[in-house]
Amino acid sequence: MLTADLDDILDDVFERVTSSRIFKNRDVLLPDYLPNKLPHREEQIRKVASVLAQALKGYKPNNLFIYGLTGTGKTAVVKLVVKKLSEKAVEKGVKLKITFINTKRDDTPYRVLARMLEDIGIRVPPTGVATAELYSRFKKFLDKKGTLMILVLDEIDYHVKKYGDDLLYKLTRINEELQRSKVSLVGITNDVNFTSWLDPRVKSSLGEEELVFPPYTAEQLRDILKDRAEMAFVEGVLGEGVIELCAALAARENGDARKALDLLRISGEIAERSGSSKVTVEHVRRAWEQMEKDRVVEIVKSLPLHSKLILYSILLLTKGGKTTYTGEVYRKYKELTAELGIETLTLRRVGDLISELDMLGLISTEVVSRGRRGLTRVISLESDPEAIRKGLLVDPTVAEVAG
Ligand SMILES: Nc1ncnc2c1ncn2[C@@H]1O[C@H](COP(=O)(O)OP(=O)(O)OP(=O)(O)O)[C@@H](O)[C@H]1O
Ligand SMILES: [Mg+2]
């Protein structure tokens, strides 16, 4: 490409984006933005606030366990309540320390303890201290301060699945060892099976109070989107039915507000990029397709190697919209493992992995009779082949057989 062309192209793109009459403030649609109002969460706000408000009287709030599917407002509600609570505590001159840790980001026991120490003003080197030592330092310094601490552990399942519930067990017992301080725990997760990872003692202690966040309905998502859209978009650019369609599509996906907001933002971005002066339902449809493809790429990327090889076999065998069946997939898969010089799973195991791919919605399978030759499964691709290919080729091993 000639440099002049490139300049022209870039000028055009920069011009379109900077002269956008679509967004007034796109950032309010980003997942990390914390709005001041959370429609349809009054009940949950009330409950979290009433549990934690004990702290304003100097009592240790009960531990609180919060569960709800992804995008149901758990993090937003707790962050909002905790923010107001610490303002109130300052106003009333109550000693209160609130620490918010996302254990997906800070997952190791070391990181969690280091964050707790940092929050009470104690610096910790990034590595090199035994976690037992960090734990006793934390107790010592917290007691010196003589304060109440509310410790929020968000996405707590990430920590527990990797490192077990030892730290959580200690933290639920910590008050027995503190003289002048108290710690209350708030645990948040979107994993239905999370409590099965916990020792019954930890489970009952963490769950002194429990709160469930239900998925949003399409109507509720519409209210949420309307509020945000007012802040995010230039007045009048949202075409008819845009908010309604975003709400309806996200409601189908487990009432996920994050998805609804992403969809609205991406629709706006597509409109902006195409130089349109309005966001239309057509832009929403394109945004949805785009998100669906991105989702497929992510799922495929996270599959284990043998599932990827099976999926790659299916991809090859279903070119042009054809169907295939288990035996054919197994032959292709065996060729690939032989080429790579790695072990080959049994036919039975491959059958199980094919069922998993079906459950993930990447392929669809149907059992049909082949007369005397018994039953087989007819397999077809269910997701966008390009998205599947893209996800697969990120893996260097698959890329090797793909040539
Ligand atoms: N009632 C609401 N009003 C306005 N915005 C909301 C509401 N509920 C959720 N949101 C927004 O939706 C997005 C997702 O919400 P949040 O992060 O609280 O979900 P979550 O339940 O913590 O999900 P996950 O389990 O995936 O962490 C955020 O941008 C949040 O601001
Ligand atoms: Mg969250």
UniProtKB/TrEMBL annotation:
Chain ranges of the AAA+ ATPase domain: 60-208
Chain sites annotated for binding ATP: 72-76, 216, 228
One of the Pfam families matching this protein, by short name: AAA_16
Swiss-Prot/TrEMBL GO biological process terms: DNA replication
Keyword Acyltransferase included in the entry's annotation: no
Family assignment from sequence similarity: Belongs to the CDC6/cdc18 family.
HAMAP family: ORC1_type_DNA_replic_protein
Function of the molecule: Involved in regulation of DNA replication.
Name of the protein in its database record: ORC1-type DNA replication protein
